[in-house]
Write a structure and sequence with these properties.
Its cofactor is Fe(2+); Zn(2+); Co(2+); Mn(2+). The chain is α/β, with parallel strands linked by helices. It is built from 8 helices and 8 strands. It binds ribulose-5-phosphate and fe (ii) ion (FE2).
């Protein structure tokens, strides 16, 4: 079954705890936390102190998407704040292998994110070391953008890479995922779908999650 990771970027920050509980009750599998620094992406969101505050509120794995420069400097903070998965952009990590080792040394699952224009080749030599590949289907920085359909063949490419090596690597897709675009991602081999506006923008959260999951 495909996992759904609601992005709290689209939640009402004035009642973040309630918003997290609500998607948990509605059947979410992960909580996706978008960390933006105003440098790697042109937007600023939340840091490890917010992660620490929400950690006790849910049993669900916290899937932390770091859209920041110098990720190595902040891995420890996010790991200690309670991240279960930390994903770093290949475009932001100078020594990606070292960054992955830093995450794993903290007992946290490690993932690598590719922007829409970044080729799958960028992770070919690190695929054995990671737990997740996150494919961006929008340019990172904002919620509510349109799905870039040209990324779909990349999902398939990553899926084939993972299968060829017989690995247990999750394939997550992030950006513009909704009930219409989700089937394209699932068909191409994604098993974790992030959705912000398509979940928090809806009145019935359970219905929103189910329709993205395709049930
Ligand atoms: O990483 C992100 C943006 O950089 C968000 O996770 C993503 O955009 C989710 O929002 P939506 O589903 O509304 O596109
Ligand atoms: Fe994200």
């Amino acid at each position: 079954m495909v996992k759904i990771a609601p992005s709290i970027l689209s939640a009402d920050f004035s009642k973040l705890g309630e918003e997290i509980k609500a998607v948990e009750m509605a059947g979410a599998d992960y909580i996706h936390v978008d960390v933006m620094d105003g440098h790697f992406v042109p937007n600023i969101t939340m840091g490890h102190l917010v992660l620490k505050a929400i950690r006790p509120l849910t049993e669900l794995p916290l899937d932390v998407h770091l859209m920041i420069e110098n990720p190595d400097s902040y891995i420890e903070d996010f790991a200690e704040a309670g991240a279960d998965i930390i994903t770093v952009h290949v475009e932001a990590a100078t020594h990606l292998h070292r960054t992955i080792q830093l995450i794993k040394a903290k007992g946290v699952k490690a993932g690598v994110v590719l922007n829409p224009a970044t080729p799958v080749d960028a992770i070919k030599h690190i695929i054995h070391d990671i737990d997740m590949v996150l494919l961006m289907t929008v340019n990172p920085g904002f919620g509510g953008q349109s799905f870039i359909q040209n990324v779909v063949p990349k999902i398939k490419e990553v899926s084939e890479l993972v299968q060829t090596h017989g690995l247990n690597v999750e394939i997550e897709v992030d950006g513009g995922v909704n009930a219409e675009t989700a089937p394209l991602c699932i068909e191409a081999g994604a098993n974790v779908l992030v959705a912000g506006s398509a979940i928090y923008g809806k009145k019935d959260l359970k219905d929103a999650i189910n329709s993205i999951r395709g049930v």
